[in-house]
Amino acid sequence: MTRDNADLTDELEIPEIVDVPEDLEDLALGDDYALNPEYVELVIDAADRGDDDRLRELVGALRSEDVADLMGFLTADYREQVIPQLDSETLGEVLSELDTNLREEVLEGVPSDTLARALEEMDSDDAVDLVEDLEDEKREQVLAAMDQTDRDAIESALKYDDETAGRLMQREVLAAPSFWTVGQTIDHVRAAGDDLPELFFDIYVVDPAYKPTGAVPVSRLLRAQRAQPLAEIMEAVTEIDVAMDQEEVAYIFDKYHLISAPVVDPGGRLVGQITVDDIVGVIQEESEEDILALAGVSDAGRDATIWGIARSRLPWLAVNTVTAAIAASVIGLFQAEIAKLLTLAILMPIVASLGGNAGAQALAVAVRALASRELNASNAARVVWRELGVGVINGLALALLMSVAVFIFFRDPMLCLTVAMALVINLFIASMAGILVPLTLDHLGRDPAVSSSVFVTFLTDFMGFLSFLGLAALILL
Amino acid sequence: MTRDNADLTDELEIPEIVDVPEDLEDLALGDDYALNPEYVELVIDAADRGDDDRLRELVGALRSEDVADLMGFLTADYREQVIPQLDSETLGEVLSELDTNLREEVLEGVPSDTLARALEEMDSDDAVDLVEDLEDEKREQVLAAMDQTDRDAIESALKYDDETAGRLMQREVLAAPSFWTVGQTIDHVRAAGDDLPELFFDIYVVDPAYKPTGAVPVSRLLRAQRAQPLAEIMEAVTEIDVAMDQEEVAYIFDKYHLISAPVVDPGGRLVGQITVDDIVGVIQEESEEDILALAGVSDAGRDATIWGIARSRLPWLAVNTVTAAIAASVIGLFQAEIAKLLTLAILMPIVASLGGNAGAQALAVAVRALASRELNASNAARVVWRELGVGVINGLALALLMSVAVFIFFRDPMLCLTVAMALVINLFIASMAGILVPLTLDHLGRDPAVSSSVFVTFLTDFMGFLSFLGLAALILL
């Protein structure tokens, strides 16, 4: 993949790549651009030998994103040997890419001055991300060592809540009055130089009060005639409120296929922009949170200790112990029945387990539909009815399947009937819980992914035991 | 949010928006840019009255993406009333945004000629998406009605496999030789007009064999002096192979924060480009698939029938019936023990359930880490050991909790010991299964999200019953 780039760099002397021997770059990444395990081994070998020159060479052949990846695969000792081999610009980029846990650890070891220099070279959104992770004392040292303008940018961004548009946005933005022509705008860009964002995709047209009135994609500016006024080629903008939650921002970007969007303060004035590359990260983050939340885990991070991970998973297990005990206490009420017919003890977990699975299915579908706004008040009733129908249909299907199996093993038609009826009841309950619990949590403004599972599992266990053993008491004994 | 846009359209007469009264636009979307349920009601009311003028007005006030959303909230009858109110350009955009199931349904009702016109106006990647969903006969009719160039583009894209870069890419791309200056390139863009993509973010620099050798972001082109050659300002490109799986493409875009990337054929020649707005959709899709797969559901789509949904969920429930039955058959081996001590029947589902939950936790973490390439051969051993450690720690913690509870209720120290030992064993098994099953499936080239749950649940149920009842037989009886 990098053949052509390497030829190119020989010719052009692009400074970051030119000194790197061809073979290391080829070795570093697999065909899928993931870091090769063998390359990690090379780094570990060099670190074991204390060969700093080789380390610098190995790390120098990687892009910053790959160095960040490498950090994730190394233990703390090896990381401490690699970090001093990075120049301060690369260090800033690598730090931006690291997971939070790992970053906090790495940040402790970097001198405040080095960090201040790195932060000054970054876009304000990335810089804020880093500063946030510093401990209070170090944060003050680092900010004090930065120049005034960059420090102000960071301090004002820190005033916005975490996970809002204000935190995601970069303050660097290209704004122009609507009476400017295409030519004037291009000349302005050529003259402005370093005050502009590193990359930009839209020029925001603003009124005298600095409120956005339109946007011109850069490619359209390029295509237009120099004499044309911006007002003639601009398109409508989708404004993002500075206090908007990042999940909503991601939804808007995804829905309208935005590349960048202007961020406005409560007075409607342009204060920054959000670009799609930051949003890709948010989308990944939010969907990962949902996957983990449905399983009752909070992300302890790739580099958490065993104790940290165990602690992050224990609360849900403890809650589940209580709910499982309550569900199992139903069994205690039917000890006499079980004593008379021990087969009940064999069949009851099957009924409970199938209910649990059907509930988990309905729940996953509902959580996904809520997250993508496919489920809301206008179709909730229809979706609920449909889920209940699905519960009944699959309840009947499983009832048939289990009846046949039970008849083959136990030759007892009344036992078949009991299992069948219990399954239909429990799958109905499972469907109902799987859709109504997340809808209710969402309606109450809670995240439906976080606490739904425990309710649904409890209900299907409880009702599984109750319906089966209760029916057995009525029908069989 | 749209105040300024409305002012703007009054002034500029942008055709799609200018005739729309202010109040409808405000009514349509909530603060979070999701379609208001009340607005859906307005549309349903108008459709019930057969008021086509009002329908056209209501639909005209929405952006295409919101019309697509609206379709999702309407039943088929209402949709059939809304579709004729859309002009063919809007129709194309709306069709692009629809979910596959819904789209197939809607496409059936649209005349081939109308569809051909709409397809001609779309970028090739979106057009291919639509054509794919047509039935064979209709597809031929529609392609025959299109002009030659657009038809060729679609037919050649259809030759690439589904879910590959070849399908995702658009063929419209801006390429320039490296000896061109910035000024020459800008002049070329101004002159080229409609042959260029609707929006573009990078200009690809190609050698005489049309192989990409670098890329120039449009914003950098704008900033450079006219006399500068492209070779001096271009940066390295990350090439995407035309056969690459879309999940890998998404990983690369996310990792390197790409806005667009050139797609090359096996000979390394530039054949198209992929832009980040298409990737955002892929990322959403892939993570939704993981959430559903972990729960044993395939997405039947928002508009599937009850039967369709039931059928999509039944296979996993049927498999689970078999595994649950095998796990429960372990209970059958210990009927004599249960008959002697009925308390065993109460406690055994708790042990199995806690194992199941711990397994689901480890599994969700592993699936997420594999998907984001945080887990691979170079840290797998470390992650496995850590999971086993977590299993033992949480097993001990739950053992303590349950021992106390069991002692309070049953006053039997040996029963406490049995439950405690069974819990430690089962949580260890759960951790092991939760990490090793997805790692093994991934190693075999299978999607770890799809079939892991059923293995893990089976193992924790089976071992839960076996460890608890087995230990009870040894210790208590």
Would you give an account of this structure?
- Two copies of one chain form a homodimer.
- Chain A is mostly helical and 477 residues long.
- Chain A folds into three domains: 3-168, MgtE N-terminal domain-like (MgtE N-terminal fold), CATH 1.25.60; 175-294, CBS-domain, CATH 3.10.580.10; 306-475, Orthogonal Bundle (Tetracycline Repressor, domain 2), CATH 1.10.357.
- Helix content of chain A is 67%, strand content 6%.
- The first copy, chain A, contains 24 helices and six strands.
- Chain A has helices at 3-12, 22-28, 37-49, 52-60, 64-73, 76-82, 88-97, 100-108, 112-120, 124-132, 136-145, 148-157, 165-168, 182-192, 218-223, 230-233, 246-256, 276-294, 306-333, 335-340, 343-371, 380-410, 413-443, 448-475, and strands at 175-177, 202-206, 212-217, 240-241, 260-264, 270-275.
- The first copy, chain A, has a three-stranded mixed beta sheet.
- In chain A, α17 crosses α18 (276-294).
- The longest helix of chain A has 31 residues, at 380-410.
- Chain A is globular, with a radius of gyration of 30 Å.
- The termini of chain A are far apart.
- The relative contact order of chain A is 0.06.
- The model of chain A is unreliable at 1-20 (pLDDT under 50).
- At the A-B interface, α1, α3, α5, α14 and β3 of A face α1, α3, α5, α14 and β3 of B.
